[in-house]
Amino acid sequence: MSERFIAEHIKTLKPSGIRRFFDLAQSMEGVISLGVGEPDFTTPWSVIEASYHSLERGFTAYTPNAGLPQLRRSIAKFLSARFSVDYDSKDEIIVTVGASQAIDIAFRSILNPGDEVIVMEPSFVSYVPTITLAGGVPVIVDTHEHNQFKLSKDALEQAITKKTKAVLICSPNNPTGAVLDKEDLEGISDVIKAHDLLVISDEIYADLIYDEAYTSIASLEGMKERTLLVSGFSKAFAMTGWRLGYVCGPEGLISQMLKIHQYTIMSAPTMAQYGAIEALENGLGEVAYMKESYKQRRNYVVKALTRMGLSCHTPGGAFYVFPSVKSTGLTSAEFAERLLMEEKVAVVPGSVFGESGEGYIRCSYAASMKQLTEAMVRIEQFVNKLKAKA
Amino acid sequence: MTEKALEMLRLLEKNAAYSNALLADLLDISIDEVKNIRQTLEDQAVILGYQTLIDWTKVLNTELVTAMIEVKVTPTRGKGFDQVAERIYRFKEVKALYLMSGSYDLSITIEAQSMMEISRFVSDKLSPLDSVMSTVTHFILKKYKHDGVIFNQEEDQDPRMMVTP
């Protein structure tokens, strides 16, 4: 094949660091995986049943570009009741193919070539490439364990230049589980307003928060008009494979984003949208059940890791813990690879989530208690072996 | 009752085999607190026992026959249904007894070694009771789900990929 077929900016795009690790883990038998970024629960049955029913009735056509009006109304009602943010379901919400597509069309709608977007790291692996693909320039602000991996307003202030257009935040965060509370968000909002920036707030884990009430940055004074609230059904409702998310924001921006959405996607999958209506209308009891279970597992995993000497901040949300492996003298990649080869437990090296993730590993506790307890035994054996050699 | 006690009950209802140490971790409290809560709940007879859910069909030669019996009864003056209910639930083979709304009064779940044994129970013990007017016996052919647990579920297969972002 001729090299000239490939666009230059794609050639230089690095494949995700998680990929190599995935191939390795997938080739082995008997592995317990704490490397999975999705719930271990299956989608609530009533959601699956509602989706079946929509297919039986023959609802298999396209929906309006922005999504089924009934679903958008349910989303608006849900956000208003849960997080005190009010969006007009007519022109302030687009139903997307996962939160990922929402983030993609957000950046493509706002970035001129060379515009800078501030991203907190360690963070989800797709943010930086998505910004780059949209012609923007990602500017990384590191977060640290001593600060519970929170984005500080001072660090944010320092990263701002004349070219800064937007700030991307994700709370609760993947991979650190860090939560930005109301006070943190107020500080960040002040900086954002002072510099006339837009914020893209990835709130996909908002319902999985364990120690306090969730605050959406969009609910703060003067922030709704400069916030794109991105969320979806994948995590809280255990619907990752359905590929359904949404983005809410000011009508003027949403209508521009809708142009990209309508030309490239048309509309999100119809049967998934019918399932999502049921999820919002009748699925919250199941969410509460899953949340309690995640919280208990978080408590267990944090305690187990701390006992074996891996320092571990207590994450306020999502379903990840992000312990430090610095005491072992290994890099995150070495630790993860040896743990996989020697004890058959898959975790993700923190370094794939950005340079500041070096020295940490991400362990997902979206796994059964049986798997978790066995994984903790194996990790402890591995850590003890390292200690004995040291 | 405290939030932690309620949470502990929900955990134990799902899995009575959880150790005190594991419960302490899950609930983020000390082992002594777990022991105290457990003791209180046992003393108050909130926790009535710890049983194991067994699929007897997988154990050779031990298969039991289960039937559900609908019973119409005449309530006793002053005692309502309680007196006749007690006469029935004291039989060891009666696994569950409920007072029902609707077209019959009592619902009995009964377990025995054979159909004969159950029919003997109905004809010799249940029907002769003065208050019992009529019975309808339904034998259970297959258990799909019991106490929230699905029987004969396919081996736990995790459909997720090993590592995802």
From TrEMBL, chain A:
Keywords, sorted A to Z: Aminotransferase, Pyridoxal phosphate, Transferase
GO molecular function: pyridoxal phosphate binding; transaminase activity
Coiled coil feature spans: none
Domain of life: Bacteria
InterPro entries (alphabetical): Aminotransferase_I/II_large, AspAT/PAT-like, NHTrfase_class1_PyrdxlP-BS, PyrdxlP-dep_Trfase, PyrdxlP-dep_Trfase_major, PyrdxlP-dep_Trfase_small
Domain Aminotransferase class I/classII large as annotated: residue spans: 30-379
Family annotation (Pfam families): Aminotran_1_2 (PF00155)
NCBIfam families documented for this protein: PRK07682.1
EC number, UniProt record: 2.6.1.-
Family stated for the protein in its record: Belongs to the class-I pyridoxal-phosphate-dependent aminotransferase family.
Name of this chain's protein: Aminotransferase
GO biological process: amino acid metabolic process
Cofactor or coenzyme needed: pyridoxal 5'-phosphate
TrEMBL record, chain B:
Keyword vocabulary terms for this entry: DNA-binding, Transcription, Transcription regulation
Positions of the HTH asnC-type domain: 1-82
Gene Ontology molecular function, alphabetical: sequence-specific DNA binding
Top-rank taxon, per record: Bacteria
UniProt cross-references to SUPFAM superfamilies, sorted A to Z: Dimeric alpha+beta barrel (SSF54909)
Pfam families: AsnC_trans_reg
Designated name of the protein: AsnC family transcriptional regulator
